[in-house]
Write a structure and sequence with these properties.
alpha/beta
């Protein structure tokens, strides 16, 4: 609602209700008498200090159209339905507002929609010959034999590149970066995030020492190294909404349970094996065979998927 209603041009303005001549009334005043304006406004009155209400001639007013019993019944039914969830039918004490869904149904539908979008994204990646998984372990506190880099094709699960990560600043690390720069041009990169286990696995770890600030966005020299999985998709950000685990009831932000304890892909000393394992997960999500949480919202509320089931 506007904070003020400006005056209409060309109409007489009355700055006080006492100055309004007899026979002129606002639309609200006419409505209280069962009337509505029958002509254009002939004046306006200031109210609330900064708004003008149009004034109409009472003699030109016409009766309001009366609501028929059938119309009244429809309006009453519509008013009643404002309190009834259109999905499960439960009746609430307060109007449900736009959409007419109760909180549990709205929660279940939101989680289902994220679940469905995760499958759409997985299907896109599985069908894309340019999509690859980039798995990196380059943290100094990792075991030396564990530090490595692997690139795995999402569609056919083939290992396109696998090598030791090398130490930061070494010729070996430089050779790895050069190979990734050439291999990942035009590729759609999928990552494994760092919160899946005790060691960080972000590709940006190849470029900087631990604790060194990481600027946002893609790296200019190495665009495949997008920090914090914001520019590149990650397996966890696809699997988490599919699996639908949440930390507390009615939270609509799915996450990985117990810091990755239940993830369905391997996390081993061999990053190439882990990459193929993650590719398998994406394929299972794409074809719908990957399990969901036993307490996923849309399986517990008794209404299945998040499609409205009541008419009206």
């Amino acid at each position: 609602m506007p904070s003020s209603i400006p005056p209409l041009p060309g109409l007489t303005r009355y700055t006080d209700w006492a100055l309004v001549p007899d026979g002129l009334q606002t639309k609200t005043q006419l409505g209280r008498q069962g009337l509505k304006p029958g002509s254009a406004p002939v004046g306006q009155v200031l109210y609330h200090g900064n708004s003008y209400a149009p004034l109409y001639e009472e003699t030109a007013a016409v009766p309001k159209r009366r609501t028929s019993p059938a119309q009244r019944a429809v309006l009453d039914r519509a008013r009643e339905l404002q309190y009834q969830c259109r999905r499960c039918g439960v009746r609430e004490e307060d109007p449900l507002g736009k959409g007419r869904f109760c909180d549990p149904c709205r929660y279940a539908m939101t989680m289902w929609d994220q679940h469905r979008q995760a499958q759409f994204l997985a299907r896109e990646l599985v069908a894309d010959p340019a999509a690859v998984l980039l798995v990196v372990d380059a943290e100094p506190d990792s075991l030396p034999e564990m530090q490595g880099v692997a690139v795995v094709s999402v569609r056919d699960r083939q290992v396109l590149y696998a090598a030791p990560a090398g130490e930061h600043g070494s010729p070996e690390r430089g050779a790895v970066l050069d190979r990734l720069d050439a291999l990942l041009v035009g590729r759609r990169v999928v990552e494994e995030p760092d919160h899946m286990g005790p060691n960080r696995r972000y590709p940006v770890a190849l470029l900087r020492l631990p604790g060194e600030p990481v600027p946002p966005g893609r790296d200019r020299r190495h665009p495949w190294a997008a920090p914090h999985s914001r520019a590149n998709a990650s397996v966890a950000r696809i699997w988490a909404p599919w699996y639908a685990f949440t930390d507390y009831p009615y939270c609509t932000v799915p996450c990985v349970p117990e810091r990755g304890a239940a993830v369905p892909w391997s996390r081993s000393l061999n990053v190439a094996v882990d990459g193929r394992s993650m590719a398998e997960v994406l394929h299972r999500i794409a074809d719908g065979t990957e399990p969901v949480w036993e307490r996923a919202a849309w399986t517990l509320d008794g209404h299945g998927i998040g499609i409205p089931q009541l008419s009206g």
